Amino acid sequence: MDFFLNRFPVYLDGALITLLMTVLGSLLAFVLAMAIGILGTLRNPAARAVATAYTEAFRGVAALVLLFWFAYAIPQITAYELSPMFAGILALGLNVGAYGAEVVRAAINAVPKAQTEATIALNMSWARRMWLVLLPQAWAQMLPTFGNLIIELMKASAIVSLIGVADLADVASKQQSSTGNTVLAYGSAMVMYFVIAQLLIFGMRMLERQANRRLGRSTAGGGGLLSLLRPPTPGTRVGAAK
């Protein structure tokens, strides 16, 4: 315990870098997922081809390979050199955005066809149909999977330590090298990663509840460890036979 408390400021700095990488990488992934996912629902063959090319290309390449490409290959083939943090954000955002694009496409296609037919009967434009009818319903379906992708992105952000970003994984590595205590060095990092994950889970659950309330749906569900503090749903008993 003393090991962690004495080095808490150092681990906190690393955790803040990890959280910043997660937030910025998630924002890039979200923008790409929404744009590419919507393109994938269009009837235009060219739009679908662009969506398919992006999705298959960046789902099929490891984030670590993308990271090294942006950090080390780009300066060799162009006159530009990306900062390590920007290279990490690009690699994580492009990789996770490809998975998110499939989530968006599937959620929009899952909206009942009757909803689309009703908007066509009302002579709504494509933009109004998508913004006012399809996306609000698909949004609630996207959020649980988006939450999982954000957690995966946060954990994958540890790879940026390989190109010199002073994130939580980098701090743990340096502490292990300086003290020789692997258990406490990486155990402290595990605690910090766990705390960050719980904060992200809580935030995503709040978004899920808000989205479901707007649609008049039940908001019961998990919420990380905080869900253990909730009382059982009225009318149910723990361990009751179904």
UniProtKB/TrEMBL annotation:
User: Cross-referenced Gene3D superfamilies, in alphabetical order?
Assistant: MetI-like (1.10.3720.10)
How does this protein sit in the membrane? Answer: Multi-pass membrane protein
Which residues does the annotated region (Disordered) include? 223-242
| Limits of the ABC transmembrane type-1 domain | 15-201
Q: Where in the cell is it found?
A: Cell membrane
Q: Which residues cross the membrane?
A: 15-42, 54-74, 86-108, 129-151, 183-204
Q: Does the keyword Transmembrane apply?
A: yes
What CDD domains does the record point to?
TM_PBP2 (cd06261)
Major location category of this protein: membrane
Question: Keywords on this record?
Answer: Amino-acid transport, Cell membrane, Membrane, Transmembrane, Transmembrane helix, Transport
UniProt xrefs under PANTHER family = L-CYSTINE TRANSPORT SYSTEM PERMEASE PROTEIN TCYL (PTHR30614:SF0), MEMBRANE COMPONENT OF AMINO ACID ABC TRANSPORTER (PTHR30614)
**Matching NCBIfam families, A to Z?**
ectoine_ehuC (TIGR03004), HEQRo_perm_3TM (TIGR01726)
The entry's family comment says:
Belongs to the binding-protein-dependent transport system permease family.
Name this polypeptide is given = Ectoine/hydroxyectoine ABC transporter permease subunit EhuC
Gene that codes for this? ehuC
